[in-house]
Design goal:
single chain; alpha/beta; Rossmann fold; Arc Repressor Mutant, subunit A; 2 domains; 5-stranded parallel beta sheet; 12 strands; binds calcium ion
Length: about 230
Amino acid sequence: MGEFTILLVEDEESLASFIQTELAFEGYQIIWAKDGQEALELFEANPVDLILLDWMLPKYDGITVARRIRKESAVPIIMMTARNQTTDIVLGLDTGLDDYLTKPFEIEELFARIRVIERRLTKQEKRLLTYQKLTLDIAKHQVKVADEEIYLTPKEFGVLYELMKTPEEVKSRDALLDSVWGYDFLGQTNVVDVYVRTLRNKLADNGRLIQTVRGVGYVLRDAHEN
Ligand code: CA
């Protein structure tokens, strides 16, 4: 998923430098903030994928930082707390923290928590397919053109899904039949043409994005690029 940037908020310099070195070694980009105020400033100024946030900090404490960030962002936050603060963790989780680690922790434990969040982010990205103004939400079985929802039958949805999975790649009628109707389908391949026609109608102007490749099948492509 490309570069993954972690904002590390920790006032204890030796711990911060240890975590920073270990995370950098694992290939993460690290931005280090030494107090709550700097955390908010650096968060505003940089694209951040995850925040590793100490609870006890100068200027603003971790929970204040988390609350402020939550007002404008859903970025994952892992809170680091001392053992005697664990009773406060329930409060922390209520304010939208994603996870917490009790100090002292093994660095492997931290890596494991980060990987869980990375996998979750990757899944969320894969749930939505987009092409030009089209958005297809796999989990919700929903298609939108810009912000307007378009109602498709399951087969129409299936055809559009197949085309949106790999835009600009030609799909043969046979391949579409196999994926959407299944290998056992006993019928003619022109059933695909019938569904593509209704799909194009429902997509109105954006129907032009589904282009016919004569003698082969269909492709999702913007006409203006040819
Ligand atoms: Ca601290």
